[in-house]
UniProtKB/TrEMBL annotation:
Family matches, as InterPro entries: HTH_ArsR_DNA-bd_dom, WH-like_DNA-bd_sf, WH_DNA-bd_sf
Stated name of the protein: HTH arsR-type domain-containing protein
Residue ranges annotated for the HTH arsR-type domain, each copy included: 4-64
Span of the signal peptide: none
Origin species: Pseudolysinimonas kribbensis
Length: 64
């Protein structure tokens, strides 16, 4: 098993971009307590399902 101890600048940028938005931070908090579908998450916000889905996609990031 290879353990990478450092993130590239691009990876760090993606992490900070994902966490820069309050909705994405809240989605992260909600998913830390257990599994949730996008539909479950969307019910908690005053935005469309598609908007929540886009937030989730940013949190998943490329290559996830």
């Amino acid at each position: 098993m290879v353990v990478q101890s450092e993130l590239s600048d691009a990876e760090v940028d993606r992490v900070f971009h994902a966490l820069a938005d309050a909705t994405r931070r809240d989605i992260l908090r909600r998913t830390l307590t257990g599994k949730a579908t996008v539909s479950d998450l969307a019910a908690a916000y005053a935005m469309s399902f598609a908007a929540v889905q886009k937030h989730v996609a940013v949190l998943e990031g490329p290559g996830s």
